Amino acid sequence: MDKTLALVLLLSPFAGFLFNVFFGKKVSKGLSGAIGTITVLVSFLLSICFFAQLNQNGEPFEISLFDWISVHNFKLDFGLLLDQLSLLWLLFVTGIGSLIHLYSISYMHDDENMHKFFAYLNLFVFFMITLVIGNNLLVMFIGWEGVGLCSYLLIGFWYKNQDYNDAAKKAFIMNRVGDLGFLIGIFILGMMFSTLNFTQMHHEIMTGSSTQNNLFIAGIAALCLFIGACGKSAQLPLYTWLPDAMAGPTPVSALIHAATMVTAGIFMVTRMNFLFDLTPYVQNIIAIVGAATALVAASIGLLQNDIKKVLAYSTVSQLGLMFLALGLGAYNVAVFHVITHAFFKACLFLGSGSVIHGLHGEQDMRKMGGLRKAMPITFWTMMISTLAIAGIFPFAGFWSKDEILMVAFEHNKVLWVVASIASIMTAFYMFRLMYLTFFKEFRGTDEQKHHLHESPSLITIPLVILAILAAIGGAINLPGSAWLKHFLEPVLVTKHEEHHLGTQEFMLMGIALAGAVFGILWAYSKYIKQAFVPKEDAEIVGFSKTIYNKYYVDEFYTFLIVRPLNSLSNFFRTTLEPALGKVVFSFGTVANGIGTQGKKLQTGSVGLYLFAFVIGVGAIITYLFIAK
User: Fold this and answer.
1) What residue segments make up the domains of the chain, in order of their start?
2) b/e map 205-237, b = 16+ CB within 10 Å
3) Cα end-to-end span (Å), the chain
4) Strands 61-71 and 74-82: what pairing?
5) Which of 126, 253, 231, 238 is nearest to 183 (CA)?
6) Could you tell me the pTM of the whole model?
7) Any transmembrane segments, and where (predicted)?
8) DSSP conformation class of 497
9) Tens digits of residue pLDDT in 8-30
10) Which of 32, 142, 533, 585 is most buried (most C-beta within 10 Å)?
11) Residues 201, 202, 208, 212: is their CA dihedral positive or negative?
12) Gap between the Cα atoms of 457 and 174, Å rounded
């Protein structure tokens, strides 16, 4: 029975994909969207059933579907693993995924290819579930590549715009760079353990039979896996695809960047925690990369004016904080922030979509303002989520971010300072977004002002649900209860110590809260009291221009990688390929010439043939005589 239910959980979104591919164009848009939403909702309800069962008896479900690969001593089955980690992920992937599907019914209703959009969304969720519930690295990799493909299709969904196509290609190619590292790591682990099954690798490492003399190789494998995580979860230096991926429809941004694809790197590192714990130097690299990413992305977010770009850099920064926790061995803390981040970031992305919907496509915050009264539900839900991401007590983000800062303070004071500065910046740019969007006077056109309105209920209902979760979601792991920590203990090797509330903990919480309030007041002073409106692009000068242009990292990549590759490609296309073509065609020309001359000998004259025969025999005899 469990096997059947697990298959239904996995395949339900795929059934929605098939329906929309084959019948979506023949039915109404409402039915197409409803089928797409219900199929994901079925997966969510089954995830709840499995979660309740696991929470009661503590026994994970591991299901082998069939023998997959058997080569010499390497054996692997195609199986599913529903344990504490995968079920937590399933809950918010399918739960928030259902809300985003519901939201999309209204948001995409005017699009002529709505059925295709829902087909891609369903396929994306199917691959994300595959990634999460695979019982080995190879099944995970199928899901890993599948979400990469679907993100390419969704980011470039409005394919008639070349910029959107370029953004989709950028996301696809940069992810492939990380995926190469992931693949190399998989091959190394396959050679080390003769299996890629998580349970079996865990057992091998814990018994030490395969790793005592291979710690260096294990470190290389862990580093390669982390490179894969950097690509998928947008960490330095592979982060530049994510902000550009805002080109896709807003529900795509919410789905990919809040609850699913970008969290895949966090999931994979947490799943392989038994390997990363063996290699503390790799963990140090992860922590440093995470902290650096958090700071760099937060600083870029300070001056962005596109409402979705601000949220995109915020995502990169928050993912950096999660990797910081992973690098410090606090896997449960990273998972805690993944969950709360999924709540408030999904709400913020969908809220930005509501604003863009109300302004008929406008995304520049310099042309917004004063939307608070016209869009009250959007405003209040986004305000709650902004308070959460800023780390204001008692919203969800306060608890999870505070846990990360406490762990950083215990292990490395420099990383704690870096993470704290990034958190202050987060509070500043998020309230900058709120002040520029919802306060003061409206700065758009008269036509936009005349048509300002709140979004329909299919858009606002998901916002309200997500805002409630952003407000109370931190309750799953409050200091003292630590439910999440205890729940995840069976899948984590290192038992991260629980923070008992004492003087130091209260002091750190106070500092974090004061930092967040400072960031908010800083934004209030500039954008409310001084009524400052960001300058037009051409007027930005100095270091602000450097930050606004994202430290010119894209330009650096273009100079260092893209242009040389383009030049090389042009050389192959314009010089080498024609030259090789001429060489190849010359063989054909010579053969054709020989054939043309040779056919002249085919005259039908028996005398000529006999003459040639005699000449040939004479030549053979002469050769044999000389050879002797």
Assistant:
1) 1-265, 279-534, 556-601
2) beeeebbeebeeebbbbbbbbbbbbbbbbbbbe
3) 85
4) antiparallel
5) 231
6) 0.90
7) 6-23, 35-54, 86-105, 117-135, 141-159, 180-199, 211-231, 252-269, 281-303, 310-328, 334-356, 377-399, 414-438, 458-478, 506-525, 606-626
8) P
9) 999 999 999 999 999 999 999 99
10) 32
11) positive
12) 37
Helices (H), 525-576: 542-548, 553-557, 563-571
Convert the pLDDT of each residue in 444-465 to its tens digit.
Answer: 888 888 888 899 999 999 999 9
AA letter at 606: V
Pair of tokens at residue 104: 């999309």
Pair of tokens at residue 79: 């199986």
Please give the structure tokens belonging to residue 409: 């303070």
Q: Please give the DSSP secondary-structure letter assigned to residue 537.
A: G
Render 35-95 in DSSP notation, one character per residue. HHHHHHHHHHHHHHHHHHHHHHH---EEEEEEEEEEETTEEEEEEEEE-HHHHHHHHHHHH
pLDDT at 497 over 70: no
> With 90 as the cut, is the pLDDT of residue 559 above it?
yes
pLDDT value at residue 356 = 93
3-class DSSP assignment, residue 306: strand
Assigned token pair, 28 = 């109404």
CB 109 within 8 A of CB 29: yes
When the pLDDT of each residue in the chain is averaged and rounded to a whole number, the result is 91
Confidence of residue 1 (pLDDT cuts 50, 70, 90): low
Residue-wise pLDDT for 499-523, tens only, equals: 667 788 889 899 999 999 999 999 9
HSE-CB at 347 with a 13 A cutoff on CA atoms is 31
- Mean pLDDT across the stretch 216-228? 94
Distance of CA 95 to the CA centre of its chain: 18
Q: Write phi, then psi, for 80 (nearest 5 degrees).
A: -120, 145
CA pseudo-torsion sign 173, 175, 176, 178: positive
Annotate 395-434 with DSSP letters as a single string: SHHHHHHHHHHHHHHHH-HHHHHHHHHHHHHHHHHHHHHH
| Greatest alpha-carbon span in the chain | 116
Q: How many residues does the chain have?
A: 628
| Alpha-carbon span 125 to 15, nearest angstrom | 11
Tokens of 145: 């590549």
Long-range contacts of 146-153 (CB under 8 A, 24+ apart): 147/260, 147/261, 147/264, 148/172, 148/175, 148/176, 148/179, 148/232, 148/261, 150/120, 150/123, 150/124, 151/124, 151/175, 151/245, 151/252, 151/256, 151/261, 153/120
Residue 115 tokens read as: 């059925």
3 state SS of 20: helix
Residues 295/421, Cβ–Cβ less than 8 Å: yes
CA dihedral (353, 355, 358, 363) positive or negative: negative
Nearest Cα to 152, choosing from 181, 134, 179, 190? 179
Q: DSSP assignment, residue 197? A: B
Asked if 294 and 419 touch (Cβ cutoff 8 Å), the reply is yes
pLDDT at 495: 65
Are the beta carbons of 228 and 178 closer than 8 angstroms?
Answer: yes
Token pair 């130091």 in the structure block, residue: 504
